Amino acid sequence: MRKIKRDDNVLVLAGKERGKTGIVRTVVGGGDLVKVKGHRPKITEDVALVTGLNMVKRHKKQQAGVQQAGIIEKEMPMPLSKLMVICKSCSKAVRVGFETRADGKHRVCRKCGQDID
Fold first, then answer.
1. 67 neighbors 60 (Cβ within 8 angstroms)
2. 21: Cβ–Cβ under 8 A, 6 or more apart, which residues?
3. What is the pTM of this model?
4. How far, in Å, are 33, 57, 58, 63 from residue 68 at the CA level?
5. Are residues 60 and 25 in the same domain?
6. Do 45 and 78 have their domain in common?
7. I want to staple 96 with a disulfide (CB 3.0 to 4.6 A). Which of 3, 4, 38, 89 is the partner?
8. What CA–CA distance (Å, rounded) separates 56 from 73?
9. Is 81 helix (H, G, I), strand (E, B) or coil?
């Protein structure tokens, strides 16, 4: 179970978008061991796409179909280590804890103790 999931409200901790908030659109899993010939194996980092943050401009050529040509703005993924969940009940950026109950494992706010889910 991840600490940050889709549709969570998050605060950006570092980088050019520091201090801004947004909603997580998708979380792309890392944790895979990537092996490249001639290099040391490394573990890829978990990243998330946050709506409206970390926007970049990409120059696109015309493609066959409905693809629009020109300069297109799109969101780039951010590492999960640079994001912090905003609790719905206390409205603060908090660390996420886990509680195991009879009905399963739940994400819990470390400041107020309320469920995040």
1. yes
2. 9, 10, 11, 12, 86
3. 0.79
4. 36, 14, 12, 7
5. yes
6. yes
7. 3
8. 5
9. helix
For residue 6, the tally of other CB atoms under 10 A from its CB is 12
Give the torsion sign (CA, 85, 90, 96, 102). Answer: negative
Residue keyed to tokens 């201090």? 19
Do the domain assignments include residue 110? Answer: yes
- List pLDDT tens digits, range 15-64: 999 999 999 999 987 666 777 788 887 777 889 999 999 999 999 888 88
Within 13 A of 27's CA, how many CA atoms are on the CB side? 20
* Residue 27 token pair: 């979380």
Please check whether residue 1 lies inside any domain of the structure.
no
Token pair 């999960």 is at which residue? 80
CB 83 within 8 A of CB 12: yes
pLDDT score for 103 = 92
